[in-house]
Amino acid sequence: MNRAERRRQQKIAEKGRPSLLTNGLPSNVTDVVQQALGLAAQHHGAGRLPEAENIYQLILKNNPNQPNALYFLGQLAHQVGRNEIAVELFSKALTIAPKFVDGYNSLGVAHHNLGNMDEAVASFQNVLALKPNHAEAQNNLGGVRIDQGKLEEAVAN
To answer: Given pLDDT bands bounded at 50, 70 and 90, which one contains residue 5?
Structure first.
């Protein structure tokens, strides 16, 4: 997990609320989901990955389309080298929250790690279409272009 993602998770933990939609759940359920996400983010940020994973899974058992739980479970999968699972989770989160910039960036990183260069490029280009000055996505896209042997395109990023 990169430094920016760690800070993002810490902010969520401090606020006790997700950064995405809670899918129109009643407020009492939303509050519980937000509290659970905050607790999971605390565990995740502290490196207590099994505890965080259990909470994310519990949230998804009750609400399989909770985009934050999908995204953070994808981050966790990526952290432990399960990039195929991370791709599935990020993709599902993005079908629910299609303008989630960090979701596309994380999806691109997971694809890059799997050697799916075209998919990684597409993910980073999605980030840049939504947020043209996203430095991390620009850097990541440049890294993929280098790995593809497209040095001129890498420099252009």
So the answer is: low
C-beta of residue 109 within 8 angstroms of C-beta of residue 85: no
Q: Same domain, yes or no, for 55 and 121? A: no
Q: Is 46 a member of any domain? A: yes
Q: Are residues 142 and 81 in the same domain?
A: no
Provide the pLDDT for residue 110: 98
For the full predicted model, state whether its pTM sits above 0.85: no
Residue 94 lies in a domain: no
**Whether residues 109 and 45 fall in one domain:** no
- The residue segments making up the domain with residue 108 are 99-157
Quickly list DSSP for 89-141. Answer: HHHHHHHHSTT-HHHHHHHHHHHHHHT-HHHHHHHHHHHHHH-TT-HHHHHHH
Tell me, what's the pLDDT at 152? 77
User: Taking residues 108-124, what's their average pLDDT?
Assistant: 97
The reported pLDDT for the residue numbered 59 is 96
What's the rounded Cα separation, in Å, for the pair 85 and 125?
A: 22
* Cα gap 75→157, rounded to integer Å: 25
Q: How many domains does the chain have?
A: 2
Cβ-based burial of 20 (10 A; exposed 0-12, middle 13-18, buried ≥19): buried
